């Protein structure tokens, strides 16, 4: 079965971001640095050998989050406000998603608090300390006020 997974781009702090996301979401983290995989034609600056060529976090809930850094020989494209990582689920996922929202709020720019929305789901938005936009939605059996 095909899956659609977020792939985040960072200038030079993908490792820090992925380790933070692992502390928030749990799971197994695998990181490969540019220095681990020298490739012909890819002129990696020795000072950038520790930058993340590919990082992948596989969470217990089935989410796969991938990220990489942008070495000096590539053009860096900053995260766009039009791209959002959505963490969604049903009533059984509420505690996990609420905890993720709370932990990602460390150093964030809150957009909408995670609360019961007019349509009956719990919903919230934030931009984390790495500039990544997140949306949270949890189906609920509660009725909006």
Describe the structure.
The protein has 145 residues and is α/β, with parallel strands linked by helices. The protein has 2 domains: 7-69, Roll (2,3-Dihydroxybiphenyl 1,2-Dioxygenase, domain 1), CATH 3.10.180.10; 84-138, Roll (2,3-Dihydroxybiphenyl 1,2-Dioxygenase, domain 1), CATH 3.10.180.10. The protein is built from 2 helices and 8 strands. The strands form 2 sheets. It has a 4-stranded mixed beta sheet, covered by helices on one side. A 4-stranded mixed beta sheet has the order 5-8-7-6, covered by helices on one side. The radius of gyration is 17 Å and the shape is elongated.
Please outline what is shown here.
The protein is of the alpha/beta class. It is built from two helices and eight strands, in the order E-H-E-E-E-E-H-E-E-E.
- C-alpha termini separation: 39 Å
CATH topology of the largest domain: 2,3-Dihydroxybiphenyl 1,2-Dioxygenase, domain 1
Strand order of the largest sheet: 1-4-3-2
Domain count: the total is 2
Note the beta-strand portion.
Answer: 25-35%
* Low-confidence residue ranges: none
Largest sheet: 4 strands, mixed
Write the SSE topology.
Blueprint: E1 7-10, H1 14-25, E2 28-33, E3 52-58, E4 64-69, E5 84-89, H2 94-104, E6 109-116, E7 122-127, E8 133-138
Parallel strand pairs: 1-4, 5-8
Antiparallel strand pairs: 2-3, 3-4, 6-7, 7-8
Features:
single chain; 145 residues; 2,3-Dihydroxybiphenyl 1,2-Dioxygenase, domain 1; 8 strands; four-stranded mixed β-sheet; 2 domains; 2 helices; alpha/beta
């Amino acid at each position: 079965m095909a899956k659609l997974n977020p792939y985040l781009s960072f200038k030079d702090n993908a490792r820090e971001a992925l380790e933070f996301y692992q502390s928030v979401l749990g799971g197994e983290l695998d990181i490969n640095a540019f220095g681990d995989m020298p490739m012909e034609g890819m002129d990696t600056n020795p000072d950038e050998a520790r930058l993340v060529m590919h990082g992948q976090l596989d969470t217990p809930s089935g989410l796969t989050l991938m990220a990489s850094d942008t070495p000096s020989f590539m053009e860096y494209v900053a995260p766009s406000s039009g791209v959002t990582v959505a963490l969604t689920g049903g009533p059984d996922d509420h505690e996990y998603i609420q905890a993720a929202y709370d932990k990602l709020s460390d150093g964030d720019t809150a957009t909408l608090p995670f609360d019961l929305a007019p349509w009956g789901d719990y919903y919230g938005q934030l931009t984390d300390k790495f500039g990544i936009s997140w949306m949270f939605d949890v189906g609920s059996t509660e009725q909006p006020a």
